[in-house]
């Protein structure tokens, strides 16, 4: 699913969070929004998902305007930094939750959950609870829970931020391989340059609610468009 954003504006206390933003993301790409905290990255993700509303402007998902689309109609999976797993549900029940809300046949749900658990090599943990898993395991569960509803778009808001360095590195490699297999349009929000450089098809540099530059890692290093990009990107 492609994403088209036209002249998007979001303000808070008369200050721009998103300042007349224009952006196009092609189907199947993994795009990273890279920038300092407070630059508008997460707000953009939440507006695309339908959790927040823009003050003006438009978002189109494969030619369909989102203005009147409910969250569940947008075919979007969302992964948060803090996992957002339900602590009182087993791993199986966490992954199945979105499908049950959509009233999918229980046999299909069971097959789909088992399939996803095998993909992340946690099929022996289906009856565990979140507190019984490591941080890396919980984040893998969060990823496949978002994918269980077979979304057309996957939104990742600082998904590795709560993990230690080695776990982050391992999980990034796993995610890159995983997304290459399933080919879902993905937007990752991060302020970690190494993270963005390692896994992105395209990097979008954000600052003060505006796009500073779009390109590959080496392009951003060699040919920065603005003084901000030059100072923010470390070769």
TrEMBL record:
The keyword Transferase is assigned to this record: no
Top-level taxon in the UniProt lineage: Eukaryota
Keywords assigned: ATP-binding, Chloroplast, Nucleotide-binding, Plastid, Sulfate transport, Transport
Domain ABC transporter: 3-233
Pfam family for this entry, one: ABC_tran
Database matches in PROSITE patterns: ABC_TRANSPORTER_1, ABC_TRANSPORTER_2
InterPro entries: AAA+_ATPase, ABC_SmlMolc_Importer, ABC_transporter-like_ATP-bd, ABC_transporter-like_CS, P-loop_NTPase
Gene Ontology terms for molecular function: ATP binding; ATP hydrolysis activity
Keyword Plastid: yes
Protein name: Putative sulfate/thiosulfate import ATP-binding protein CysA
Organism this protein belongs to: Codium simulans
Organism taxonomic ancestry: Eukaryota, Viridiplantae, Chlorophyta, core chlorophytes, Ulvophyceae
UniProt gene name: cysA
